[in-house]
Amino acid sequence: MDVQAALTFSWVTNSSRGPDCTSPTVRRKWLGTPVGIRPSRRVTVVSLDMAESLGPRFAKLWTASTMSALGSGLATIAAPLFVAAHTRSPLIVSATFGVAWLPWLLFALPGGLLVDRVDRRRLMVTIDWTRVAAMGVLATALLAGWSSIALLDAVLFVINTGEVIFRSAGQAMIPSLVPRARLERANGWLVGGTTLMQGIIAGPLGGFLFVVAASVPFFVNAGTYAVSAVLLGLVAGTYRASFRTEAGGDGRSRQAGRVRAELAEGFRWLLHQRVLRTMTVLIGLLNLTLTAATSVLVLLAKERLGLGSVGYGTLFTCEAAGALLGSACGDRLIKRVTATWTIRIGLLIEAGLHLALATSRSAYVVGAMLFAFGVHAALWSIVGNSLRQRLTPPELLGRVASTSLFIAAGGNCVGALLGGMVAAKFGITAPYWVGFVVAVIVSAATWRVFNRATVAQAYAEPALSR
Predict the structure, then answer these.
(1) Cβ partners under 8 Å of residue 74, min gap 6
(2) Cα(286)–Cα(263) distance, rounded to whole angstroms?
(3) pLDDT tens for each residue of 295-307
(4) 89-104 pLDDT per residue, tens
């Protein structure tokens, strides 16, 4: 595997849109004062009273999440470089990619149930210390010369299993840390921190540290998880939802049945929420086409844009810069253009990106579209996470968020498989044409779902316990 292939692996594993897409993203309650917006009037987001602080508890959560994102970004860069240094087998490379995504499919749903049953802060601390131990074992083995792709894959599986649950728990904590009217700003800070660390800093830093020694990025990763665990331990308060349990029981069969019923409860609740249901399905479907397209982007960049490794990496620096801008100004932009048009314009940008990739031979045009897509992806994460946090009852937040993660990850996995197949059979631009057609169709089909009255009602309704 060459440098370009390593970059492809690295970017795809971080590009998922989802509750966080950050995801990849993915990339997201407690009762607060409802935002008084009447459906007949222009929908605004009133979260930007700049004099109001998000508070020290959120500051600790943000710092912990940002440090954790830096560590995960370093590992995402170092892992494919390590594999490339030991094998050129596409099968082994793809197996490492699959191991990184498999936990999102296996543990997203049960992880959400766990988040709704236990104290979310303590769960996140436990996950971080577990990841410190796993990453420490890997780094020590590499330092001692016991290089093994199998060990790397095993540790990646553990790390990503923790990441699935960590993200759900972090998103579920946010509404208890900040006022309801400040959710957009809080989510913007989280998206921005993750984008800065994983999209801009982790790439060059991870490559440099790997050159110093293969074990160094993984030691640093273990250190970032330790810092995250300590900071989360300093967040005051209890963050356990009022989870309902049925009295009585006759053993494991009743327990298993209750688990299935509780998972189904979160899924059914999401199905009955038109706005959230539509956004979740959209993210899964658009993730499929986006991942299919980006899985062969390295070839498009070389054959049609005439770019080398540096130019290819620069394209994603453009996207990361856009995402950073979107997360920094997200709540103000959403307030100005409304949540309704934030979603609708995002759908048009999605279609425009695929069209530009399918037709343009200019690296500048593609870079500009990736910058715009980065802004859109950040804004969508903020709107989607904030809407879910506003509408979902506190005791269902973990399960609803994990269902969204599961669908987003499923889109990524299927898209990664389809991209190469479609390009091999119909040509290098075929995945982009497919993505453009799908984006146009879903834009037309869902345009009226995100009307001002519906979104205004979502912002005005508090999330009530059942």
Answers:
(1) 202, 205, 206, 209, 217, 218, 220, 221, 224
(2) 25
(3) 778 778 888 988 8
(4) 656 766 676 677 788 8
* CATH architecture assigned to 3-240+259-460: Up-down Bundle (1.20)
Could you tell me what percent of the chain has a pLDDT over 70?
81
CA distance 29 to 182: 12
- pLDDT band of 17, cuts 50, 70, 90: very low
**Contact (Cβ atoms closer than 8 angstroms) between residue 287 and residue 411:** yes
88 Cβ contact list (under 8 Å, min separation 6): 1
- Report the length, in residues, of the chain: 466
Sign of CA dihedral 444, 433, 286, 194: negative
Tokens of 185: 């700003």
290 pLDDT tier (thresholds 50, 70, 90): confident
Find how far residue 228's CA is from the centre of its chain: 18
Tell me which residue of 207, 202, 173 sits closest to 190, measured CA to CA. 173
SS (H, E, C) the chain: CCHHHHHHHHHHCCCCCCCCCCCCCCCCCCCCCCCCCCCCCCCCCCCCCCCCCCCHHHHHHHHHHHHHHHHHHHHHHHHHHHHHHHCCCHHHHHHHHHHHHHHHHHHHHHHHHHHHHCCHHHHHHHHHHHHHHHHHHHHHHHHCCCCCHHHHHHHHHHHHHHHHHHHHHHHHHHHHHCCHHHHHHHHHHHHHHHHHHHHHHHHHHHHHHHHHCCCHHHHHHHHHHHHHHHHHHCCCCCCCCCCCCCCCCCCHHHHHHHHHHHHHHHHHHHHCCHHHHHHHHHHHHHHHHHHHHHCCHHHHHHHCCCCCHHHHHHHHHHHHHHHHHHHHHHHHHHHHHHHHHHHHHHHHHHHHHHHHHHHCCCHHHHHHHHHHHHHHHHHHHHHHHHHHHHHCCHHHHHHHHHHHHHHHHHHHHHHHHHHHHHHHHHCCCHHHHHHHHHHHHHHHHHCCCCCHHHHHHHHHCCCCCC
Domain ranges of the chain: 3-240+259-460
